[in-house]
Structures are given as structure tokens and as C-alpha cells.
Specification:
single chain; alpha+beta; S16 Ribosomal Protein, Chain: A; five-stranded mixed sheet; 5 strands
């Protein structure tokens, strides 16, 4: 099973996170399938590759709670629902 989750980067007390698609059995810093975004909680910056996220969600990937919240604020799920209604 594939999950969309955070991968910690940066240095001590200055954590930044990559949003990655990764196998559920891998550890947090394990090998990811693809990098799909970036999240900086200190500066409150987010960069998302929305087409890649939508592709993984269509294939059945499950986002973690934090990634779900970040994606929801960015409007990824509204695009997902628009794409599903367009193709149905």
C-alpha cells in the first residue's frame, strides 16, 4: 500500500518536510517512490505537485492526517472531485 506522508529534512530545530509517496512499510526517512511536495512549517510555505498527488490518489494512495490537511488547504480535493465528475 502507498501512502502520501511527510519526510523530515533540514537541521535541528529547523525542520522542513518533503511530501512523498512511499510504501507503508518503509521508515520515515526510507526510500520514497516520488517527491510530490514540500512543506515548511516555520515559514508556513507549501509547494505541491498537484497532478502527481491526484495521480497517486486515483491509484489508491492514502494520505496521512497532516498531508490530508495540507492538501485540503491547497484545494487538491476539490480538483479531485472535479476530475471524477468530469470523467464519469
Amino acid at each position: 500500500m502507498v501512502k502520501l506522508r511527510l519526510k523530515r529534512c533540514g537541521r535541528k530545530q529547523r525542520a522542513v518536510y518533503r511530501i512523498v509517496a512511499i510504501d507503508v512499510r518503509s521508515r520515515r526517512e526510507g526510500r520514497d517512490l516520488r517527491k510530490v511536495g514540500f512543506y515548511d512549517p516555520i515559514n508556513n510555505q507549501t509547494h505541491l505537485n498537484v497532478p502527481a498527488i491526484l495521480d497517486f490518489l486515483d491509484k489508491g494512495a492514502q494520505p496521512t492526517g497532516t498531508v490530508h490537511d495540507i492538501s485540503k488547504k491547497a484545494g487538491v480535493f476539490t480538483e479531485l472531485s472535479l476530475n471524477q465528475t468530469k470523467f464519469n
